[in-house]
Amino acid sequence: GKAESLNRWGARADWGKGGRGGDAAAQAIFGQAAAELTLPQVALLASRVGDTRFNPWCETGAATAMRNRGLARMRDNGAISAADFEAASSAALGVAPPPEGLPPCAR
Predict the structure, then answer these.
(1) CA distance 46 to 57
(2) Residues 6+ apart with CB under 8 A from 44
(3) SS3 14
(4) Which strand (E) or helix (H) includes residue 26?
(5) What is the Cα–Cα distance from 33 to 6, expressed in whole angstroms?
(6) SS3 sequence, 65-98?
(7) For every one of its 107 residues, what pLDDT tens digit does the chain have, with 9 covering 90 and above?
(8) Cβ density class 80-92: b for 16+ within 10 Å, e for less
């Protein structure tokens, strides 16, 4: 399922305070368990695998573009419908407040 997939790739990255795995990623970025994430939230996390250049709290435009590219790949591969793509790609990022200790965004 969704949580198992997130845990497989999320185990490769440190998501803060020593947390690894999909649940740690979901908690760090969205403030909720991986099993509770929506399709757009899962796509944002998946888009960050191997590419963490964009801070979702500071660079929302870049993070949204990365998420939407992932959603487009899912649509093109038949994993989601065109209607699901349209709804998910127009959704807000929905990130939780930034974690304590995160440097302020450069403006």
Answers:
(1) 16
(2) 29, 56, 63, 66, 67, 70, 93
(3) strand
(4) helix 22-30
(5) 11
(6) HHHHHHHHHHHHCCCCCHHHHHHHHCCCCCCCCC
(7) 544 554 454 455 555 545 566 777 888 888 888 889 999 998 888 877 666 667 788 888 988 998 999 899 999 999 999 999 999 999 999 888 887 777 777 55
(8) beeeebeebbebe
Task: Count the residues in the chain.
Answer: 107
Nearest Cα to 70, choosing from 94, 39, 95? 39
Element (H, E) at 13: none
Question: If residue 7 lies in a helix (H) or strand (E), which one and from where to where?
Answer: helix 2-10
- The single-letter code of the amino acid at 63 is A
What tokens does 66 get?
């990365």
